[in-house]
Design brief:
By secondary structure, the protein is mainly alpha-helical. It is built from 20 helices and six strands. The chain folds into three domains: 129 residues, Alpha Horseshoe (MgtE N-terminal fold), CATH 1.25.60; 108 residues, Roll (CBS-domain); 172 residues, SLC41 divalent cation transporters, integral membrane domain (Tetracycline Repressor, domain 2, Orthogonal Bundle). A three-stranded mixed beta sheet has the order 1-2-3. Strands 4-5-6 form a three-stranded mixed beta sheet. Strand 1, helix 12 and strand 2 form a beta-alpha-beta unit.
Length: 451
């Protein structure tokens, strides 16, 4: 990798203060590799390394750094260097940096912006947090439908220099309402004297500036595009959002889901750089909730103590308890995982719950019967027919119940506008533990005729 091959050479050039050779060496390498190399250098060399980069490349390298590393580097740059850095960042990258940095640093950044960039930054920051408006860039290419192809291509060559992408060209009317988006190659292949309207099909994908960023991820994935039009409430084109920015959103959303599935509040910084206090706070909440659920489960076992004491096989009933509630929890976790993913990808909606309920009852019933057949054999040999019937019947009931809980909880949370991933494995398992204990001993008490 670059950081392993070049680091000794880079450090030597910095120590010799050979800035010309250093600049020529660095400008041929891609920005992601340079950002990794920057972080491996001693702290005193990082600023000297960064100052050696061409301005455009420096801004790109900066955008690939984590928030904490950006903050640290900004503290070492002069106001003039910071002003040049911000001026060369794309509007969406600039907005992302400003909203992630601490308040004092953000205010310093805003004070260093040019009047035009400041208006743009405040406009983008005015959209709700996690909305598409925060991610979009106002740098795009738009043409009128009555323009000729030759006129449109001249405009594309001129305006495209500042645009984040020219893969798709947006067609607007005089009031800037979006009419179409067209691939660049269709302009190139069209006759020069044809009109833009001649190659339009009036079919385009767009997203509201106020929509959640995850919605833009779903739309851009569905239509397989590299840029997506962003509209205001009146249908006016206000910007575009590109696939590279949405990939970051998708990664962040996946990270949140993984954390929540493990009953951890989301952590947005590198695990290596996250303070121990934050790690403790992100994990302790759900662990305490799960402890309380464990106490409820233990209380349920205590409630059925007369059933256990009334039987010679009472100890045997307790011996099968971990197997039964563990099976229920595993079945519930499977159902929960399937539903969380299906909801996240938009594969299912809340209105599909009744249909999925019927399917889940069928699958869970078949799973329960299969597992009951397996558990009835040791039940019969260790406790006779009665124990075999109790553990087998309970297995069917708790597997079906656990599956329905695991399937339904994500739908309920989604309906309450909460993240379905909150219905994590540990949470579902704890709920099925409590219900499994109650079902098991209630059925045993009834079947054995214990009052």
């Amino acid at each position: 990798m670059l950081k392993e091959l070049l680091r000794p050479e880079i450090e030597e050039l910095i120590h010799r203060k050979d800035w010309t050779v250093l600049r020529e060496t660095l400008e041929i390498w891609p920005a992601p590799e340079l950002s990794d190399l920057l972080l491996t250098l001693p702290k005193d060399d990082r600023v000297l390394f960064y100052r050696s980069l061409p301005r455009d490349l420096a801004a790109e390298v900066f955008s690939h750094l984590e928030g904490s590393d950006q903050d640290e580097l900004l503290r070492d740059l002069t106001d003039e260097e910071t002003r040049h850095l911000l001026a060369n960042l794309t509007p969406d990258d600039r907005t992302h940096i400003l909203e992630e940095l601490p308040g004092q640093v953000t205010q310093r950044m805003l004070n260093l912006l040019s009047p035009e960039d400041l208006r743009e930054a405040r406009w983008l920051l005015g959209y709700p947090e996690d909305s598409v408006g925060r991610l979009m860039t106002p740098d795009y290419v738009a043409v009128r439908e009555d323009a000729t192809i030759a006129q449109a291509l001249r405009h594309i060559r001129h305006a495209g220099k500042k645009s984040e992408t020219v893969n798709r060209i947006f067609v607007v009317d005089k009031d800037w309402h979006l009419l179409d988006d067209i691939e660049l190659r269709r302009f190139i292949l069209a006759e020069p004297d044809a009109r833009v309207s001649d190659i339009m099909d009036h079919s385009f994908a767009s997203v509201s500036a106020f929509a959640e960023a995850e919605e833009a991820v779903r739309v851009i994935r569905r239509y397989d595009q590299v840029a997506l039009a962003v509209l205001d409430s009146a249908g006016v084109l206000v910007g575009i959002v590109t696939v590279d920015d949405l990939l970051d959103v998708a990664e962040e959303e996946a990270t949140e889901d993984f954390h929540r599935v493990g009953s951890v509040e989301p952590i947005y910084t590198s695990l290596l750089d996250t303070p121990l206090g934050i790690l403790f706070r992100r994990r302790v909440g759900w662990l305490l909730v799960l402890v309380l659920m464990g106490i409820v489960s233990a209380a349920a076992i205590t409630f059925f103590e007369p059933t256990i004491d009334a039987l010679e096989e009472g100890v045997l009933l307790v011996a099968f308890l971990p197997l039964l509630i563990g099976s229920a929890g595993n079945a519930g976790s499977q159902s929960s995982t399937l539903m969380i993913r299906a909801i996240a990808t938009g594969d299912v909606r809340t209105s599909d719950w009744f249909y999925l309920l019927g399917r889940e009852l069928g699958v869970a019933g078949a799973l329960g019967v299969t597992m009951a057949a397996a558990v009835s054999i040791p039940g019969f040999f260790q406790g006779g027919r009665e124990i075999a019937v109790i553990v087998a019947t309970t297995m069917v009931l708790v597997v079906m119940l656990g599956s329905l809980i695991g399937m339904s909880l994500p739908f309920l949370l989604n309906r309450l506008k909460m993240d379905p991933a909150t219905a994590s494995g540990p949470l579902v398992t704890s709920i099925t533990d409590i219900t499994g204990v109650i079902v098991y001993f209630s059925f045993a008490t009834w079947y054995l005729g214990i009052s």
